Amino acid sequence: MRENRACRRSHRPATEGTCRVKATATRPKIIVTGDGRGVVGHAGARLLADLADTTGLTSAFSEAMAGLRQRRNGHDPGRIAVDLAVMIADGGEAIADLAVLRDQAALFGPVASAPTAWRLLSRLDETLLAQLRAARARAREVAWAQHAEVRGHLPQPAVAGRLVDGLVLDIDATIVICHSEKEAATRTWKKTFGYHPLLCFLDNTGEALAGLLREGRAGSNTTADHITVLDHALAQIPDAYRHGTPILLRADAAGSSHEFLAHIRSLRDQHLDIRFSVGAAITEPVREAIRAATGWAPAVDTDGDLREHAEVCEITGLFDAGGWPEGTRFLVRRERPHPGAQLSLFDTVEGWRHQIVATDTPPGTGSIQFLEARHRAHARIEDRIRTGKDTGFGRFPSRLFAINQAWLQLALTGIDLVAWTQNLLLDGDLATAEPKKVRYRLLHVAARITRTARRTRLAIANGWPWTDALTSAFTALAALPRPTG
Length: 485
Fold this sequence. Notes:
The protein has helices spanning about 1-10, 45-55, 55-65, 75-90, 100, 105-110, 115-120, 125-150, 225-235, 240, 260-265, 285-290, 345-350, 370-375, 380-395, 400-425, 435-445, 465-480, and strands spanning about 15, 20, 40, 160, 160-165, 165-175, 175, 185, 195, 200, 210, 245-250, 275-280, 295-300, 305-315, 330-335, 355-360, 445-450, 455-460.
């Protein structure tokens, strides 16, 4: 009866109890053929490949892996590594995805086969990976120098309506689930199975400074791993910035081991102006200090607005801070728990959810509200990791741990290429967009490629909404100053 009523409302007769619905054509009819000529896909990915050349990344990789080249007319190992990084930045998830570049030689030139790429990754031992990291650092120095010349100072992170001075490094670990047996993939603390890499991102630019692939059972607060990742990250920063710019290291409570903080403090002897802001455990002495605390002030969020039902207070000196570096300050934040919040017994009794921040930022450099909000901005690394998993390190291609280590380094390189593209070549929303949006609007665009008068012309569709942004990016790329020497 419902079908008949629906038919009567539409003034259409029902036939044998079935309502006939008139088809509405919403798309133009098309005839699909496979004889198109001069058409290429993923045209915007050429921007990443050219940027790798312009920053000296390709030549630095080639120099680092020169010993792996077996034949003069064979593929350059450094070029293979760059092509893999471009493919990863473009959204590739497996080495076989190199076919997207390789099958478009008119756009990307000669690209190695998947077996050749596999052989290269299998030969990247610890020594060669260290040389690749050094090559990335040289290219980063060029990219930052280009940024200084064409766009001025590096971006400064904003917190609570105020810019954070200097460079801000965020360290955090994540779980990458493996759905098949892989070497060193083990049960994780979340009772899943996979790897537990530790990563460091630069909050200023979104660059992936360092990463360490670890087995799944690796601890979240392993001091040696945190020191390794921090040292690798600092080595990525050009000398002029590493020794002449304030550096803030942020981490959650996993980065609050006294040995790691002592290492950070020791870096000052190497003339680094580095400070820390880390989460801290709430022990019984800390709980007593919280109960005795006075002078609570309204908390602010990272946008600078007052956060309802949240307060901050400094409890430095209210408990014994033995083992912490001299000058460490302790800030506590309390807020009314939201529904579903995981509370300790102490939080349940007090009726507040508490979090502690330990920092050696001296008094006089910001209010406790600002310092606490500055630390909470560490949560941005969760977005970096989430998008990074879509840019290479969310899926590892091999059963062999060594190959997956090499893949991680190339994934970090791909993330850097996207970050350099945004910081050097793009403006507006695309300059701050997540990589997926950059791919969908720029990198994956189709175009027509022609060759006339010994020049290759790439014509992007006139009606594509982001054609101007992409052509402007290529123009800006051509105008970047080239490294000399």
